[in-house]
Automatic annotation (TrEMBL):
Protein name, entry field: Predicted arabinose efflux permease, MFS family
Gene Ontology CC terms: plasma membrane
CDD domains, alphabetized: MFS_NepI_like (cd17324)
Location relative to the cell: Cell membrane
Pfam family, one: MFS_1
UniProt xrefs under Gene3D superfamilies: MFS general substrate transporter like domains
Domain of life: Bacteria
Keywords attached to this entry: Cell membrane, Membrane, Transmembrane, Transmembrane helix
GO MF: transmembrane transporter activity
Membrane-protein topology: Multi-pass membrane protein
TM segment ranges: 21-38, 58-82, 89-113, 119-141, 148-166, 178-202, 223-241, 261-280, 287-307, 313-334, 346-368, 374-393
Organism lineage: Bacteria, Bacillati, Actinomycetota, Actinomycetes, Cryptosporangiales
Main localization of the protein described in the UniProt heading: membrane
Length: 400
């Protein structure tokens, strides 16, 4: 399971691919950008949607919760259901489903219809990610896989930095329905882009429930799944409450929270590409550095983040470290399961999405019962647990 390992299927796929798969990588990155924007855009529009459809903001929050939970189920289920369907056709169908879902959201006459549309969003997110997250191995040469994976995951950071804020601003200026109409248009553009540059992608293997279960026999996959659960749970338990933390612990004015979150997202994009460059050479070391950094920076916020300057520096450092996690964890899964990239990636996407919801839930309980300090400690402890888990990989796998 070294960096040089390739499977016969991957080698054959790459030799059949076009000489340059970078336009396809870019189109897939556009897809991830749109998916994450569609998933998170309602966060900034809850009040407007709730008012228009006569539901509380808490109820409107289902617009965010529902697609995350559905995506966690859809990630392993979609590859099983579609069987040997060409993955190019599958990605086109899922992006078409995203187009339909956003149109339905935009014209929803009541909240029940709107939530139904968000179920469709969740199916599109889970299915698309299950295939796209491991697609770099089929589009570019092996040596360029980490960089291509970083570009695909760069769509996530771009959505957080540009997509969600701009979509929220559009919703505030011209209405939330127009914002979702715009998303549907962008989804259609993405369909056309994928149609133009994505080569035929025969199913690498039939994904059966047994094949998914068998991945847990692989120690590298088990370590990757456990590390993902710990990192994502810890991060979202703390980051969900970053706005009150900045204001109450660092004394930062509420008007500066938005720009600081923009800085966090920008740092995350930088971290994504820096990690992508390092992962090809040193996957194990890079992941260990990133997890240790998270284990330190979140608890350190309680010691050095008591003022605006310290809080800002630590927030940006946090963004840099976490920004490399998605590409790092996915690269780990690719190298841990080179013969089963798609099923291993499907499991990873499912755990990632479940951990987002679980982390936010646990963080909310801790904030309500203890304090903001507790979620920062939890985030650090979870990251430390992930670092210990990854450290064990040196003894249990030959991943380097």
């Amino acid at each position: 399971m070294t960096h040089e390992v390739q499977t016969t299927g991957q080698t054959a796929t790459q030799s059949a691919a076009p000489r340059s798969g970078w336009p396809a990588v870019t189109a897939v990155a556009l897809g991830t950008f749109l998916l994450v924007t569609a998933e998170q855009l309602p966060i900034g529009l809850l009040t407007a949607v709730g008012s228009a459809l006569s539901v509380s903001e808490g109820t409107a929050g289902l617009m965010v919760t529902v697609p995350s939970l559905v995506a966690a189920v859809a990630a392993p289920l979609v590859p099983v259901v579609v069987g040997g369907m060409d993955r190019r056709a599958l990605l086109l169908a899922l992006m078409g489903l995203m187009t339909l879902a956003n149109v339905t959201t935009a014209v929803a006459p009541n909240f029940a219809v709107l939530v139904t549309s968000r179920v469709l969003v969740g199916v599109a997110i889970g299915g698309f990610w299950a295939v796209a997250s491991g697609l770099a191995v089929r589009l570019v040469a092996t040596a360029h896989v980490p960089r291509a994976t970083a570009i695909i995951f760069g769509g996530v950071g771009a959505a957080n930095v540009f997509g969600v804020p701009l979509g929220t601003l559009m919703g505030e200026l011209v209405g939330w329905r127009i914002a979702f109409v715009t998303l549907s248009v962008l989804a259609l553009v993405t369909v056309l882009a994928l149609l133009a540059v994505l080569p035929p992608l025969a199913a690498p293997q039939l994904v059966r429930p047994r094949l998914l279960i068998d991945q847990f026999r692989n120690p590298g996959v088990r370590i990757g799944i456990l590390a993902t659960f710990l990192i994502v749970t810890g991060h979202f338990s703390a980051y969900t409450f970053v706005s009150p933390a900045l204001q109450q612990l660092s004394g930062i004015d509420e008007r500066l929270v938005g720009p600081l979150l923009f800085a966090f997202g920008t740092a995350g994009m930088v971290g994504n590409f820096v990690a992508g460059a390092a992962l090809g050479r040193h996957t194990y070391r890079t992941m260990l550095v990133l997890t240790v950094a998270l284990a330190v920076v979140m608890p350190l916020y309680l010691l050095l983040g008591g003022g605006p300057a310290g809080g800002t520096i630590l927030l940006i450092t946090w963004g840099l470290a976490y920004g490399g996690m998605s590409v790092g964890l996915q690269t780990w899964m690719i190298k841990a399961a080179p013969n089963a990239v798609e099923p291993a990636s499907a499991l990873w996407v499912a755990v990632f999405n479940l951990s987002i919801g679980f982390g936010a839930l646990v963080g909310g309980v801790l904030v309500d019962t203890l304090s903001l300090d507790a979620v920062l400690w939890l985030g650090g402890i979870c990251a430390l647990g992930a670092a210990i888990t990854i450290r064990a990989a040196r003894a249990n796998t030959n991943l380097r």
